[in-house]
């Protein structure tokens, strides 16, 4: 195994990189967000188009990230890329957003979903405490062994995909289907340009969050110039297909009025499909599915914390790794933040402000494809964005559209996101005043 500049070892192959990206995407969003989408949108065509449009946007982003990550192969995701493309201050801010809204908050959301699905079967189990226990145990696994962490990730992701496929197959085999049609009417097309569709895309965008997951650990990926673009592309295509079909199955099984406002969409659909007893089994499988999402978030979030700690004195304690090259302090820091979100915010609030912030940072990164082509035209690019310059432009236009409506329709969550960014700005200023840039990696003996 070859060491990277930050001391991490290239131990992640193509399969695990795809697994991490799939695990980051498939989970909380697809099994929970439909209940919020049907509050304002009743059109079957428009609801499925949400997932197709979301997949196309994510794919445009993945194709763009592939170029940047292959050309600048260091772990850290947007933190590293924006530091290189624009300025270290913007990189630091994006890293702070990743630590909080990018990974700790979505980990909390997945933990809440795990608790909700478990609670649906065992009402005596507290939702928040069940989620918190899962976060602690999974963090302990990743903090003790890279090998066992990889095993946990690959096995739980395989179970996750199997559960989704099983749900789809059983859904189509069920005898009691709703009389729905995908054929659009004129009013259905009008919905696609409405504020309701834009706000609903926030939930869909959250469900696709993670399409860029492999770039956060590119420094640990074997042959990243080749494997990173493939991992991003394959994972996004797989998940888009799964999402569109799975949501069609949900709508095929459950009348829309019964879905409105529900978090445990999968459980409701399973009850219609199999009856209460079998639905309990499937609900437990879905809660197990959330383990894969939590695991992927914990694994990646700790690495971002480590990379930032290597570069900034104010966070230097978080860069420490043990003899097994595991960023234990980073994992612990993210675990504490996750528990904070878990016990202080509602599911929907965390989802909206996390998505708002992540869309902003990913948009700046994708715009970096244009910036780097202009500023460094001679830079070696092992992979170039397919469809350039159209694909990055589509990503940026769609995300600008979404963010504009979020600011108008969800001002409180937008202000929370702004508050998180302000804290990051203060941390950067504190580092400039009292710290130093470019700290060496610290090891615990």
UniProtKB/TrEMBL annotation:
Q: Where in the cell is it found?
A: Membrane
Q: Does the keyword Membrane apply?
A: yes
Report the superkingdom from the record.
Answer: Bacteria
Q: Which UniProt keywords apply?
A: Membrane, Transmembrane, Transmembrane helix
- InterPro entries registered for this protein in UniProt: AA/rel_permease1, AminoAcid_Transporter
Topology with regard to the membrane?
A: Multi-pass membrane protein
Task: Indicate the transmembrane segments per the record.
Answer: 12-32, 44-68, 89-114, 120-143, 155-175, 195-218, 230-254, 281-305, 326-344, 350-374, 386-408, 414-430
Major site of localization recorded for this protein: membrane
Supply the name of the protein.
Amino acid permease
Q: Record the organism.
A: Fodinibius salsisoli
């Amino acid at each position: 195994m070859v060491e990277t500049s930050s001391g991490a070892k290239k131990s992640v192959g193509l399969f695990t990189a795809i697994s991490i990206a799939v695990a980051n995407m498939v989970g909380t969003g697809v099994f929970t967000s439909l209940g919020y989408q049907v509050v304002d949108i009743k059109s079957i065509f428009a609801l499925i188009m949400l997932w197709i449009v979301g997949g196309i946007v994510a794919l445009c982003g993945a194709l763009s990230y592939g170029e940047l990550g292959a050309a600048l192969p260091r772990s850290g995701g947007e933190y590293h890329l924006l530091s290189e493309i624009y300025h270290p201050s913007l990189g630091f801010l994006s890293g702070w957003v990743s630590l909080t809204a990018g990974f700790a908050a979505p980990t909390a959301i997945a933990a809440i979903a795990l608790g909700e699905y478990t609670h649906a079967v065992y009402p005596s189990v507290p939702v928040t405490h069940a989620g918190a226990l899962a976060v602690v145990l999974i963090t302990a696994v990743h903090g003790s062994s890279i090998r066992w962490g990889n095993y946990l990730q690959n096995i739980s992701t395989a179970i996750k995909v199997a559960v989704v496929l099983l749900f789809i197959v059983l859904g189509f085999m069920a005898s009691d289907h709703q009389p729905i049609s995908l054929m659009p009417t004129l009013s259905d097309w009008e919905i696609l340009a409405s504020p309701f569709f834009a706000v609903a895309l926030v939930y869909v965008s959250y469900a696709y969050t993670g399409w860029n997951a492999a770039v956060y650990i590119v420094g640990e990926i074997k042959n990243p110039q080749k494997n990173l673009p493939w991992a991003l592309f394959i994972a996004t295509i797989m998940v888009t297909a799964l999402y569109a079909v799975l949501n069609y199955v949900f709508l095929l099984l459950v009348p829309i009025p019964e879905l409105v406002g529900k978090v445990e969409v999968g459980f409701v659909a399973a009850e219609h499909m199999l009856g209460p007893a079998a639905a309990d089994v499937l609900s437990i499988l879905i809660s197990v599915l959330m383990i894969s999402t939590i695991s992927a978030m914990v694994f990646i979030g700790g690495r971002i914390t480590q990379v930032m700690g290597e570069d900034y004195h104010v966070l230097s304690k978080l860069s420490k790794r043990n003899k097994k090259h595991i960023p234990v302090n980073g994992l612990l820091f993210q675990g504490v933040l996750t528990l904070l979100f878990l016990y202080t915010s509602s599911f929907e609030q965390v989802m909206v402000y996390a998505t708002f912030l992540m869309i902003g940072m990913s948009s700046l990164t994708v715009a970096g494809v244009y910036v780097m082509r202009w500023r460094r035209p001679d830079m070696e690019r092992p992979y170039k964005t397919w469809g350039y310059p159209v694909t990055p432009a589509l990503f940026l236009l769609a995300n600008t559209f979404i963010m504009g409506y979020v600011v108008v329709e969800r001002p409180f969550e937008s202000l929370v996101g702004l508050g998180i960014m302000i804290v990051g700005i203060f941390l950067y200023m504190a580092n400039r005043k009292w710290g130093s840039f470019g700290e060496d990696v610290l090891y615990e003996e």
